[in-house]
Amino acid sequence: MTLTRPIARRSFCGGFAAAAALPLAAERGAMAESPPQRDGQAGSLEVPGARLHYETQGSGPVLIMVAGAAGTGDPFRMVASHLAAHYTVVIYDRRGFSRSRLTGPQDYDQRLKTEADDARRLVEHLSRGPATVFGTSSGAIIALDVLARHPSVVRTLIAYEPAAVRQLPDGQKWVDFFAEVYDLYRRSGIEAALKTFRERAFAETDRQTMARAPKTEFTLPNATHWFEHELRQYPAVRLDLAALKAHADRIVLMSWRESRGYPAYQVNLELGKKLSRDVIEMPGGHVGFLAHPAEFARALVEALVRIGHGPKR
User: Fold this and answer.
1) For a Cys staple, 76 with which of 91, 114, 164, 278, CB 3.0–4.6 Å?
2) Domain assignment present for 150
3) What is the CB neighbour count within 10 angstroms for residue 52?
4) Which has the closest alpha carbon to 161: 276, 70, 281, 79?
5) Residue 58: in which H helix or E strand, if any?
6) CA separation for the pair 167, 236 (Å, rounded)
7) What is the DSSP string of 93-156?
């Protein structure tokens, strides 16, 4: 069953991403460069064990954006409003986060497979054919798994700094670090653990952007869900490189200049070598879509057009 309702501009711009990104975008005059689209639709999709909340905006080919650690589509709101000039943009809350409620038993040992299936179901529900799938951080791990398991629904896969640290030569060091962060969370709470995680894994500009994100009613339950079911598990996955190589021509690896030297940036360098794909370096950091939404959207579309993966109507 699917429910849809219109989203007014005021509610569509509210929440996590708008509050975090608007001041930064305004400082650079970015909002004036690419007027955002103003209307959208919200809906829900029943999937096994969950009800997924999603929102769509714009027109054209479908672009589904898979969130990282936040688990919710809210951080994409501002960049989605700019990408909507080129795509029908779909943002959604991953199962167990924010408005995507769990409705039945969960097999957490198969959680990545389940989340890839959720994304596949969204594509089939909202698109008449294969879609462009954009994933960031742990969301990029999900996106890569969608291509590996369900290639028929993916036209282009944009892996934006996936957190699959097992790809790194020193990957076990990072797997151990995430386990230490989890232990810190259990001993000292969410704030202490997040501080350690951010200081080690992200550039200063990203840490500043993350620190400015306001808290909502979902902040605590989302963080708890991430610590318990994702922090240790997703970075430690072993990607199906054989399946990805079979569809490597659809994969676009993107990293951000200010992330150089940090693990997610390095993961894409390693994947580029293993999949024989170039890595496109963009201006900004790991959460550039928050700090510079208009600039991010423009650079993303231009890069995709340049390599032959741009929006096609």
Assistant:
1) 91
2) yes
3) 23
4) 281
5) strand 50-58
6) 9
7) PPTTSTT-EE-S---GGGHHHHHHHHHHHHHHHH-SS-EEEEEETHHHHHHHHHHHH-GGGEEE
d(CA 276, CA 156): 16
Reported as type and span, the H/E element at residue 186 is helix 171-188
Q: Are 55 and 84 contacting, i.e. CB atoms less than 8 angstroms apart?
A: no
- pLDDT tens-digit series, residues 161-203: 999 999 999 999 999 999 999 999 999 999 999 999 998 988 7
Measured over the CA atoms of residue 122, residue 123, residue 127 and residue 131, the dihedral's sign is positive
CATH number at residue 245: 3.40.50.1820
> Distance between CA 54 and CA 94 in Å, rounded?
9
Q: Which residues contact 302 (CB under 8 A, 6 or more apart)?
A: none
Q: What's the one-letter identity of residue 159?
A: A
Tell me if 143 is assigned to some domain: yes
Return d(Cα 160, Cα 110) in angstroms, integer. 23
Would residue 313 count as lying in a domain? no
**Domain total of the chain:** 1
pLDDT tens per residue, range 8-40: 332 223 332 332 332 333 333 333 334 455 567
Find all residues with CB under 8 Å of 93, minimum gap 6, and list them: 52, 53, 54, 67, 71, 72, 73, 74, 99, 100
Distance CA 80, CA 87 (A): 9
Domain membership of residue 286 (yes or no) is yes
Question: pTM for the complete prediction?
Answer: 0.86
Which structure tokens are listed for 41?
């639709």
Q: 3-class DSSP state for residue 32?
A: helix
Q: Which domain holds residue 29?
A: 2-306
Nearest to 202 by CA among 166, 221, 167, 177: 177
